[in-house]
Amino acid sequence: MIFRSILRTLLLVSITTLSGFAQTDTRQNPPLLAAASPESVGFYPERLNRIDGLIQSYIDKGAFPGVAAIVVRNGKIVYHKAFGKADIEANKPMAKDAIFRIASMTKAVTSLAVMMLHEEGKIMLDEPISKYIPDFAKPVVLDKYNEKDSTFTTVPAKREISIRHLLSHMSGLNYNVIASDPRMRAIYTKAGIIDAFTTQNIKIGDVVKKLAKLPLNHQPGEKWTYGLSIDVLGYLVEVVSGMPLDQFFQSRIFGPLGMKDTYFYLPDSKKDRLVPLYSETKEKQLVKLAPNQGLTADPDYPVNGAKAYFSGGGGLSSTAYDYAIFLQMLLNKGVYNGKRLLSRKGVDLFTNTNQTGTLFPDANSYFSLGFEVINEKGHSEDVNSVGTFSWGGAFSTHYFADPKENICVVLMKQMWGTSYGGELDRKFDVLVYQALDD
Q: Measuring CA to CA, which residue among 224, 227, 232, 31 is closest to residue 113?
């Protein structure tokens, strides 16, 4: 009996050790997303329906083939509609459950994974990334650059890149194709740096290690530069967790939350729901984007190719509904579907703290450890509440979450380059707020 009791105790300890760092059950149990009348959560239905006309007007003038949108308040879906075509040539209507490449909306998911590892005591935010990826030891910063042959000189960095620098885009890493500095674009292109996705049999770790040997755009912590920081963090998650990023996302985030349509690479059973990627000609005509036409990779990367590259900065595809689940979990202070992914204090640090001071390029906002966040100046110039956090994706996807009003919205389109920019996104946000009746 004593032996069996000891064995049972050892077994319990082993199970606890293995599962202790998984997402945990919680006494907090907010309801799952479910449809409800607008009136039940303080929306005026007639004013909410103004969104229909707004979206349809952009489709009618050929700005976008189709759009899917969702509006949630207090965990209740009050607006979930699809407009126009998913595929113009096939005359396929857009569906509410259509799957979109969400590009940089991936960043928030990867950053959440980092914050989860932080709360497990596996990493600290001000540790140098070189502690986990030694290739980043002794970083250098670009000094002089020769445009004729893209050669350059460097100076030593004053400090190492920290995990916090990466989360807040203060690392000095840039992008390649969409680099803000043409010198960095040339350097990255010459080195074969991939921005977000590829159909080739390449692993994210290989690209990150190559990136680590290149000069930084500026001294870490001294400037905000949008770049490959979150891709580095995706590889960090792999190193620290011991599992590929797609498996971490599935087992630790998507599975527990019930996000059933979010993937790096779509299963065959769901690939027909992927919305084709469109672009705009000089005459502003919509054309379906083909391989090597304006992009450096096959636009059908979520269903074709080696399916080996897990870009933490831009590789996911998802639905409006799935991403609304993710946002609602954050509005619930880290809880959804009976699971706690992040603590209340962790969510506040993640979504609301000013990590960039006055260095963020928009004076109306700052950057936290995962999002652009509206400040007092931004609130005084438009309708978003102070503390609203948001971002979007390069293929014309958009979201925001407003903790004060307990509202989250997702607006999905699928365009690479458009003369309308974020015009519809901004008007959409206004029409959501103007529909509030309580």
A: 232
Encoded tokens for 97: 């459950």
Task: Delineate the domains of the chain, giving CATH numbers in brackets.
Answer: 34-98+260-290+312-434 (3.40.710.10), 113-241 (3.40.710.10)
Helix (H) or strand (E) holding 401: strand 397-402
Half-sphere exposure (CA, 13 Å, Cβ side) for 42?
12
CA distance linking residue 417 with residue 170, whole number of Å: 26
Number of residues assigned to the chain: 438
CA nearest to 85, candidates 122, 56, 42: 56
pLDDT tens digit at each of 438 positions of the chain: 333 333 333 333 333 333 445 567 777 789 999 999 999 999 999 999 999 999 999 999 999 999 999 999 999 999 999 999 999 999 999 999 999 999 999 999 999 999 999 999 999 999 999 999 999 999 999 999 999 998 999 999 999 999 999 999 999 999 998 888 999 999 999 999 999 888 889 999 999 999 999 999 999 999 999 999 999 999 999 999 999 999 999 999 999 999 999 999 999 999 999 999 999 988 889 999 877 666 666 778 899 889 999 999 999 999 999 999 999 999 999 999 999 999 999 999 999 999 999 999 999 999 999 999 999 999 999 999 999 999 999 999 999 999 999 999 999 999 998 889 899 999 999 999 999 999
Q: What angle do CA 14, 233, 391 make, to 5 degrees?
A: 120
Q: Which residues of 237-265 are buried (b: 16+ CB within 10 A; e: fewer)?
A: bbebbeebbbebbbebbbebbebebbbbb
> SS3 of 68, please?
strand
Which residues in 291-324 are b (16+ Cβ under 10 Å) and which e? eeeebebbbbbbbebebbbbbbbbbbbbbbbbbb
- CA dist., res. 366 & res. 353, Å (int): 9
What span, in angstroms and rounded, lies between the C-alpha atoms of 67 and 56? 9
Instruction: Please give the radius of gyration of the chain, using alpha carbons only, rounded to the nearest integer.
Output: 22
> Is the pTM above the cut of 0.90?
yes
Residue 109: both structure tokens together: 């998911």
